[in-house]
Structures are given as structure tokens and as C-alpha cells.
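Inputs:
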Amino acid sequence: MTLIALLQLDPTVGDLAHNAARLEELAGLAAQHGAEVGVSTELAVCGYPPRDLLLEHDFIQRSLACALGIKSTIPLLVGTPLPAEEPRSLPTNGVVRCGPEFTSLGGNVHARVVAEKQLLPTYDVFDEARYFSAKNRSGLARSVGALNLGVTVCEDAWQAAGSTPSAYAQDPIEHLAEWCRQGVAIDATVNLSASPFHSEKFSTRLHVARHAAAVLKHPFLLANQVGGNDDLLFDGRSLVAWPDGRAVVAPSWCEGVLLVDLNGPEGCRWLPSTASDALSIGEAEMESLSGSQTGLESVDTMDELTDAVVTGLADYCRKSNIGSIVLGLSGGIDSAVAACVAVAALGAENVTGLAMPSRHSSQHSIDDALHTANALGMECEVHRIDAMHMSIESTLAPVLENGHPVAAENLQARLRAILVMGYANARSSMAISTGNKSEIAQGYCTLYGDMAGGYAPLGDVYKMEVYAMADRFNKRALADGRPAPVSNSTLTKPPSAELAPDQVDADSLPPYDVLDTVLQAHIESGMNADQMMEAGFEEALVMDVLRRLERTEHKRRQMAPSPRVSSRAFGQGWRRPLASNHDWRGLSR
Amino acid sequence: MTLIALLQLDPTVGDLAHNAARLEELAGLAAQHGAEVGVSTELAVCGYPPRDLLLEHDFIQRSLACALGIKSTIPLLVGTPLPAEEPRSLPTNGVVRCGPEFTSLGGNVHARVVAEKQLLPTYDVFDEARYFSAKNRSGLARSVGALNLGVTVCEDAWQAAGSTPSAYAQDPIEHLAEWCRQGVAIDATVNLSASPFHSEKFSTRLHVARHAAAVLKHPFLLANQVGGNDDLLFDGRSLVAWPDGRAVVAPSWCEGVLLVDLNGPEGCRWLPSTASDALSIGEAEMESLSGSQTGLESVDTMDELTDAVVTGLADYCRKSNIGSIVLGLSGGIDSAVAACVAVAALGAENVTGLAMPSRHSSQHSIDDALHTANALGMECEVHRIDAMHMSIESTLAPVLENGHPVAAENLQARLRAILVMGYANARSSMAISTGNKSEIAQGYCTLYGDMAGGYAPLGDVYKMEVYAMADRFNKRALADGRPAPVSNSTLTKPPSAELAPDQVDADSLPPYDVLDTVLQAHIESGMNADQMMEAGFEEALVMDVLRRLERTEHKRRQMAPSPRVSSRAFGQGWRRPLASNHDWRGLSR
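Outputs:
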């Protein structure tokens, strides 16, 4: 039995001491259970993604010092940035050895470096060419305990499987395989990862690991970061794959140790972290897969998305020292689900809802808002905004009278934001924005109104998915013997912003099921207008949706981060010029 | 006399047809005046930076088609993205030949490609490794007219001069020089650039050009983009440098043609664009420099910064089809200068100011606001916000009473934002935010309050620079026989947010001259806390300023773009994790 421990950590970016302490805790747990070697996630000591902190020489130096100082009774491979070797060169994304022989913190730093990342992803949410220089020497850690390990960092393994958007000139997996063919004894190859989550991403990551194991002809072990850092979520699911395709997968959204027996799945175990504040959301079960399983068989996409969004908000708050949340409760589906997310993330005692009816609000809006708050056990206050609304309307009357009608509607959304922000500021809480991806994509939201808030938990969740999340939250509550938080009325009434008399969203937008299909074709599948029409979408529909999407780019840019759950989120992965002409595509023809 | 025309263009990103038409106009002007060859700026046909538009295959194809279709009676070298050659590879940043022999749009595309960018900047505001693959073949355009030209694209020339933050493995200038030594006849080397502006950047760019000319032993010609695209400004100043250091420089902030006589400065001319909507801000004069001049001798930094900021706002509005602006006028220095910028950018008839006093406002606030509006000839309305303010205060009374005092102060700023946004929405105008870099850096501003607006013209201008800009606007007005827009009272009263009784900024912040020095040391010079204390700053001052800077990162992230004028702006060049621990630097010790 040869046990390697994959340390599935939720690091806080920049909190070097905390991350190092957590690595020591997980390594201790691993040692206790007989692990011979521990392997951290990518850049574990500083957390991923450190972004422009990496431009500060100090940050790199202190990260490395912190990594080198990690104490462990078993050998560890720890991810850390490494300082540039030459004056006009960039740092590298490296892996160093820690453990019993180094506890006195002595020794030559160079001798402790076992790998430096070779493939630097610079697409989608990744900017690694901005921060690092790539090395072209494959990582090999000899005599780690009794083992010789190939060592790779995240993207290093993806070229071999053809799973990157563009090809790299090198292939670190093929390089290690060549060494094996030449007789170098390698017991297993490990991969330190910070591979972000999105829906169905896991099947690709599993494919990458299986492909590497098959090429290398030995077990391939991937330690993946878990938790949320701003808009990026990491699902954990550290895993081992054998050349025959069998695999063992750690749970998602939990910190702990995947204890891998190189001999096969039978000896593998999941050890949850024993730290009192360890991340632990959802079902914490290890899974064993045969060579033919994709790993998605047992995944309920909506359950996964729900846990992902909760993790995003919970970690954003924890890592930013935010203890409580305020949100507007309109009685609609979005704010009801956002309240469920907030309560799941921070506890009902730390969430306050504000119902803020205007003269355009229906009685069911207040009733449904109170239903949700009561069912969740959170505080809810009702403040009518009519007096303030009339006061502002009379001030602006001359300009509103002949102006664009949306101006009058926006007043209410912005007044509510003043109240929500007033609560948040007074109590040192964070306001959250409750909008969903579909309405944000269409600009069907008010800048500095309902878009206000420090985090937007549903900002990457399509409207129809919000309904499905409501269903999950209701089922979970009922299963726990609590009342369902999202009322039938909220689930079934026609969506309405209630900013004008008898207004419903369908007056301005296509029905959400249709809208979501169009948006997903364009945003997630990357289809352009012509391709969408070829695929059978009506021209007028496509053009309207795309035009609104282009025109509201500037509003989206001023929103708080949203946890990224879809394959192509707004934000980091959607960098577009604002002051530009988007008509090159011929939308106005 | 051998004349090469540098086509100094202000392209609109994505407006392919417009950019192509403007290139044809400038090429026509050049041909009229005897130019043998025309050279565009980098990616001129699609504008720089196209950012994620480059991820769309369509966009690349249409850009190239548009470039290839450009009609000209003289040969042109035009910057355009080129499609990837292989399925899993990236596009390149290329240069194609246009001109009389190609007007029928025929011919082999490959044969028309004369260069592809070799060095891809991926630092600061640049992300080129995200979009392009680098080529390692130097560009040479033979028989362009009667000339053989070395062809480089922007960064290609910067490695030779050592003017990049990290070194590249290749040096395109050295490579061309080696060809020359081997006997290849090259008459001159041209460089298609989109080199962004910041204060004093020009001297570096001039150094790069002179260095290239000296290494190549022939004239080096650089055509630089001009105008504003979101937060990026391009100052133009296309130039030619000879091996002996002499140089001729086109004006900044103007579109036109720099007609370069390869024989020397005497035959060079500046031809302003004749298009009715051509960018033309500031003094449009060509300058001839001896080898010992830095090019900054005749530059007044504050005049330059003033023109830069006006260009940024003017171009943002033009390229986004925004015809009018609304802003709050507080009687303070920031809003007064922002009003000057708006009027300079769009004309007084397109700018509306709102003075919105509360019970904390002094009479001089209204008087000074009206003075500025009257002097500028712009509309100004006065709306007292007391009634709304009291209405909101009474609603929030219970939470405000025991809450953080800043909550009550923020109400006023947010109420004013509702009015400004109400005007903007009703009239389809854009609201601008008037805050300066110093206060934004310290979080001395209200999110969704005074930070609201689609563009923040002064967001990268330090407070003391705002005063200096006020002085420039006053002098310019007086020189034109108009009244000075910024009153003595505005210039001399102690800065105050007027959100609480007798409040002045100095209650919460160090004096602005001190604050600016600390901020500049950290942000622009990249000094850390230790270095700043070594340099003589007081520890308590440094720690307070840096702590506030870290804590308000999330607010800055939700701001509209600001034209970048300093060496290290917030925004694209300042990518930091939000939910993270910034205490690795030991600020809390």
C-alpha cells in the first residue's frame, strides 16, 4: 500500500500564514492516516488567482518563504510562485519540497524546487503569460518518501488531451512519457491544479487525467483547489486516474485530503478537514468510477449549480470579512432565490431582507417576500417608498414629462438601492444584487438600482435555472422538515419588475425560456447571428436579443462580481471594448 | 525627395467601414501631396484594442476583408488581424499591402501579408498573448513604390531599446539590422503602433525610435494611433527618427498625415485630416527635434494632461453615440473642472449641471456652481434635496441611529445620483462621475453616489493635478476673452464633501498635497511600505493611506472607465483579487 495525499485546500488569496497553517493541518491529517507524501494545489501558499499581487516582488518572496517554512512530518510538494532568476524576467509558477528534512528551514532553495509550470494558460479567465515565464523542463521529484514522482502544474496536463483552445508547442505529459520509455523510474505523476468550475467542466478534467494516465502508463493524481475567489469557483474533486480509466474522485465544495492508494481504488479514502471553519458544502462523498463512467452520471446539474453559488457567496464573505447581508425582497423569484443563497451561505441570523413596495407593487409582492423571509427564518422589514418616490418625482417632473419613460421607472429601483445600501452601510453589512444572467444580458435592470451590491450571486445564472434552483431549495427545506422558502405564487406568477402599472417582463423581453435558449446559443456556444438563424432561430428574435446584449455592456461592467457557473461568464472572460461600434456583425441590416 | 506618409488615425474599435474610409481619406491626402507610400497605425482597420472581439472568427475575417478592400492610388501598408492558419492556433497581428495593383481586390492573400507582429506585450494594459500568436520572421516589404521597407509592429521595436518590463527572446530590430549587414537593401523601417499615452511616455517612445534608427542605420518611422478608446488614450505623435538622433514629430490629439521625407527633417510636413469630424484637440503643430532634445522641452505637462482628458471624454462620447452630458455641480473643484472638460469635449450646449444643495451645503456651494456654469455657458439647474433627504432619513432613522455614521452621509450623495441619473435617462444623456484619483484611491467617495456615471474623466487625475487643470482652463478661457470658469472661491476654499455639518476633507484624509505624494510613491513608483518609510514618509501616514487604498478596491471596481493619464492607472492595469487578505505586506503590524 503506497499512499499519496492530495491536499484539497480552499486558500484565501494573499493570506499566506492562513494558507500555510491549513496546509500543515491537512498534511498532519494525511500523515496520521499513513500517507507517505502530500501534494498541494497550484500556488496553494498564496491562493489562486493572485492576479496583480504577483507583480509585487515582495509578494513572491514572502510566498516562497512561507512555503519553505511549512512544517510536516511527511514530505510535501507545495505550489508557490518563484522569484524571477534574472532582472528583466518574470517569476515562475513552481512547486517546492517541504517536509521533515527541511523543517529547520535550511537548505538550498534551488535544490528544493521540483517543478515549474510549462504551459501558461492565457485565455478565458486566465492571464498567466502576464505574470509568469514558462519553463520547458519537465518536473521530476526523486525520492519523495520512497517514490519518484513526475510533477506537473494544472495546464501542463491539458495539451496532451487536446483540451486547450489553442495548442502549445510543448507537451509536458508526452515529455514525461518519453523519460519513462527511456527507463526513468516514475511511480506516479502528480498535478497541482487550480482548475475553475463551470457546469460540466468536470468531465473534461477527468478526461485530461485519464488521458495523462494512459499516456504515462502509471497513475495520474490531480490535487485541485476548492472554494470561491471573487468570480472564480473551484470545485475541488481532486482525483486519481489509472491507465485503464478507473478513477477515484474527491467530493466537491469541501476541504480535506484524498488519500490515494497507488495500487487501486479500493485503498483510497476521503478525509474531511477537521478545521472548525473548513469549507464543507453539499454531499461530501468520495466516488469511485469505472473506466466507462464520465463522472457526471451521479451529478444533478442543478444541485451542483446551487452548491456552487452558495460556495461563491460564502467564500466571498468569509475572505472579505463580511458577516452579514442585506438584500431587497420583491416577492419575485430572483430575490427569493438570492435570499435562499444568502441564508445557506451565512445563516438566517445574518441576512436581512427589505420589502420596499411602491404604488406599482401588488399585495402578493409583499406577501410573497414575507413568506420567503419567514420560511427562511431571516429578518424582513417592510418600508413603503411612496413618500420618497413622490418627492423625487415632483422634483424631476419637468424632465421626466418629456423624457424617456425608463427614467421614471428607474427612480424606484434606485430609491430601493438607497435603502438597501443605507442598511448595509449602517450595519457594516454587504448588500447583494439579486439579478440573473438573462435580465442582466438584456439590460433589463437598473444601474445603481437593483444592480447595486457588492456581490451578485445569480449574475451568471440564467432565469430558467433560477426557477430550477428555487425548486432545489424548496426540496432541501422540505427534506429537512422546514417550510419551502419559495412560494407557489412566486414560482408561478408572470415575472414583473413592477416599475409601471401592470408591467410584466414579457412586455419588453421574449419569454424567458425562449430568451435563455437564444442567449445560451450565443454566449455559451459562441454562435453568431448567421449561425443562430441557420439553426432555426427567427431573425427578428435573434437581432433584438443581440442588440440589447451589445447595448448594455457598459452596465454589466459596473456590476459586482458573480460566481462563474456557466461556460462563458460575463466579467473576466468577456473583455470587450465599450466605446466601439458593434455593428461589424451587421446587426442593423 | 522620397516621401512616406504616416497615417495618424483615430479609429473606432469595431467600426471597420468607418476606419477603412478614413484610411482612404488620409491616403488620398498623402497621395495628393506626393507621398510614395502610406503606412497605417497598428490594427488600424479594426482599431486598437479590439479585446475579446478578436475571439470571434467573424471579426478577424471581416477585418481582413475590409483591409484588403481599401482603395488607394499609392501603395499602403495597413494593420489588420490575420486569421489563424491552423485550427488550434491563434490569429496574428499583421500588416497587409493595399494600393493600385490590388484595387480589384484580387490576388493571393498570403502574398499581400508583409509582416506579423513578433513581440506580444502582455503586461500593464496589454493582453496580446491572449489573442495572438507571435511570429518570429521579420517583416520586409519589397518594392513598395520604389522602396524596400523593414516592417515592424509596435512592441517589435521596444526590445532593442530595453524599454519593456521583461525581456523577449527575440529582437526584431536586431534581426533587420543583421539583414542590412548581410547586404539586404532596406531604405527605411516602418513601425505600425498603437502606443498608449501616459504622462511623459513620449520621451520613452522617442528613445525607442532613435535607438532603432541608430541600430538599423536608416530612418525609422512610427505611425501611432490617436484618440481615446475607453480608458486607453493614444496621443498620436507619429514620428520619424534618423540614425543621428534628429527626429520629426506629428502633433498629439489630432488626425492627419505626417509626410516624411527620408532625406531629412526639412522636407517633412504635417497634413491635418480634412474630414469634418476629424479629431483635433490642442495645438496641431509638427515639431523638429535635434539629436539632443527629448521632445519634452516644449511640453507643458498640465496642458498635455488637460488635452488628454478632453480627448478621452470626447472620443468616448463620439464612439458610443452619446450626444450630451449631465453632471452634478457642487461648487467644488472636481465638478468645476469636470464641467470644463465636458464643455471642451461636447460644447456648452450639450452639458447640463445640477446643483443639489442639502442642509449641509453652504451658500458658496451654489454660488460657485452657478459661476462655473455661467462662465462656461452651460445649462444649470438648482434642486434642493432637503425634502427627499428628510423623507429617506425618517424611513431609515432606526437603523441610522445606531449605525455607522457614514451611512447617513452617503444618503445625500446617492440622492444626488438619482437626480443626475434621472436627467441622464430622461434625456438619453450620459452622467459623468466627477471624482479624482486621490479621493477614489482612499474610498472618500460614495458608491452609487458621486461615483455614479458612465465615464469618470478625472478618475486618473490626482487632486493637486485637478487644481492645476483648473488653472489651465481658466487661462485658456481668459486668453479667448471668456470669463474664467473656476472661481477663486472654488480654488481656495478647503475641500469639503459637505455631507455633515462643518465637514472638511482634511478631517478624514491627510492634506491633498501630502496624500498625493504618498499615493504617487506607491501607485506610480511602485514603492512598498518599507521603501516609503526608508524614503522618509512617516509610518502612521503610510499605513493609513495604504490601508484605505486596499479597503476600497471593491468600490473602484464598480466605477466607469477613466482616461488613463498616469503611469499606473486603476482599472486594466491594476488587476487585484477582491476577496483576499492584503495583509501579507504586514500593514496591520
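Remarks. Chain B has 18 helices and 20 strands. Chain B touches chain A through 95 residues (CB under 8 Å).
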